[in-house]
Every structure is written in structure tokens, then in C-alpha cells.
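Self-study notes.
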Amino acid sequence: MLKRTLVGAYFNAVEVGHAVAGMVRAPAYGRVVDTYDEYWRGRAPGGLQPRFEIIEAGVPRGSSVLDVGCGDGAMLEFLHTARAVKGVGIDISAEAVARACRRGLDARVQTLGDLRLTGDTFDHVVMSEVVEHVADAERFVLDAWALARRSLWLTFPNIAYFPHRLRLLSGKFPVQWVVFPGEHLRFWSVPDFAAWLASLSLPSPRVRASNGLTFGRLHRAWPNLFGNQIVICPRTRSSAPRRSPRPSRPTMTSR
């Protein structure tokens, strides 16, 4: 227990140090990529993330799960191992889908709108670190909601996380991208995201921060200030799929 506490304190101190340094340090700009296939060719394989375990706790064993923007399948593989889910992953990147298939997953190059046209539905639909990459996120989320029989899981990076506030205080825009600034098209704080879902007539969601400043569980007590990646779940009210407007247009998505 002492070792875990000391390790946690160290990493939290590093996080605070990076936040303060970010007030004066210029961001690292990676090479601009034109397609998500090119993007994924430059990405290291995905690994276990804290948000996976939060989602896994809300997915009963043997459920059907759709992972939208599945990337290389890291999360779907985790859910399959932990909960024996019947999982399907979709992504517009053939490179990412090929990686997911090499993990032994049912992954397809397909858009969310095209999948809606098939009439398929799933117990749980997950979009992890996806909505911030999509211009028409409203249509995207409504399509996902229509496919979910029990719950919809959404995760996003919190623009109100304290390091981003410090950068704004120093007159600089927050840095949230992995490779290049054009990755993210939409930005939300926790209350903004909840209000946005309400504007789409989705139920009031459960909110948890999966990481951030974790010392003393600050990220759980004040997720909008100390939470970095946020997990939100508006649960459905019945097992019947809801109707929503026509399927969305094809968009570029990625984990």
C-alpha cells in the first residue's frame, strides 16, 4: 500500500509539473497526416487504459457490444477477455481494422450510418475518444444511441482540466492532440458535455473521470477541474431501440 501511494504521489507530482511547464512551453507539433490510415501507421499499439475498466464494470458478461471507432481493437479485446462480450468493432481506417483483426476480433471497415441501415442493434455501444474527432458529432451520437438497447458509453478529453486552464491563463490554447492539432474538431468541459447531451434529448448521464490528478481521488471528487479523460453513460430507459433521424454521413473517426 505504501509503495502504491508513493508511486501515485510521484506521478501526480509529474502531472502538476507538466501543467506548470505547459504555461510557457511550446507544444510539440507532429507531422500532418492526410488520412487515418496514415495516422494509424504511425501509432504504437494500444494498451490498457483506466477508462476501459470503468466501462467494463457496466457491461454484463456475455453482452453484445459495438465499439465505434475501434482503432486497433485494444478496448474490445479487453472487454472480450474480461467479460466474454460478443463484440463488433467498426472504423473507417483499414489499417486500424487490420490491426484489430490480428487480435482475433470481429472488426470491419464501416461507417456508423451504414451500420444503422442494416437494422442491427447491440446491448451496449461504446465510443471511446471518438466524438471530439467528428464535425457532426450530434448526428453521430444520435445514430449510436439508436443502436444501443441498454447503454451508450462516451468518453472525451476534458478541455477544463486544470493544465488546460493554466495554459489559457498564460494566453495559450490547450494542447489535447496526440500527433497534430487537426485531430480534434470539438471541445467540451464536463458540464458542457452534459448540457449538450440534454439538448439531444438523451437522459442525464453518469459521469466519472478515468484519470487526471488522482491524488486523494481529486479526479473523482471534482472531475471538471481534476479529471482529464471523462467517461459518460446515459442509460436507455427500455430495451427497445429508439428512433432517431436518418443515418449520419460518412465521417473520419478514430480512437
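Second protein, same conventions, sequence then structure:
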Amino acid sequence: MTRHRSHSAAFKRQVAEEFIAGETLHALSKRHDISRQLVRIWVGKFEAGALDDDVQAVDLIQEYEAKIAALERMVGRQALELELLKGALRHLPRPRSATTSVVTGPVASRSAEIPCCGSSRKKGIRRRFECFLGADHGVGIDQQLASDGN
């Protein structure tokens, strides 16, 4: 399996100059352990002026500017999305029955309003216990015990 190597522009320029000076493709590829096709590509780029440091610097700057522009567009989209979501959150109706305080705890259950016997909605142990004791329907065990004590 071939390995991918990255060569510097100076090395590519040196190989291309050696080829132009009269070195053979075979000798260059053996000495530097690179393919002959790669030498041909580098020579073509050298002759076109693409291996100059200034050209490479300009290409690198253009690549970075393109990345920066893409990131700025992404940040702009995310800022718009965030503002849209904040506005939607401000206009949502708040549930009045739900508690938002950590101190007060969860909302109390409405078990006193649920019919006791014969109801499939009755699930709590307290309600079963109230039915077992014969508590009146709709009256909680606390109220039943309070009325028995008087």
C-alpha cells in the first residue's frame, strides 16, 4: 500500500530544476523515492510558475479567506436562528399550573377529585388505603380522621 507524503515547495523546485538541467526521470525517481509521474507534474507546475513561494502564499491566503467567509456566514445564520428562538420563547404562553420554583417543589396531585372505588384512574397507595378504611368518596383520609376525632 502506498503512503501519502507531503513535500515542500523547495524540494519540488529542486527536483524540477534537476530534471530541466538534464537528469533523467528514472534517476530522479530512484534517488528521491518518488514516482516518475510526480516528477512530471512538478516540472509542469515549475514551468507554469506554480511552485514559486509568492504564488503559493497567494493561494494559501485565498483559501483562508474563503474559509473565513464561510465561517462568518455560519455565525450569521446561527445568530439569526438564536434571535428567532429567543423571540419565540418570549412569546410562548407560560403554563399557570406548573411551578417554576425549586423551593415549592412539584405541583400537588389532584387525587381528591378522582373518584375512589371502581375507577381505573385510582393508582396511588394512599387512595387504596382510604378505600380500605372506608373513607367517603371525595374526602381525603386526613379529613376523615379529623372528622372522626371531633
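Instructor comment on the second fold: Residues 7-51 form one domain.
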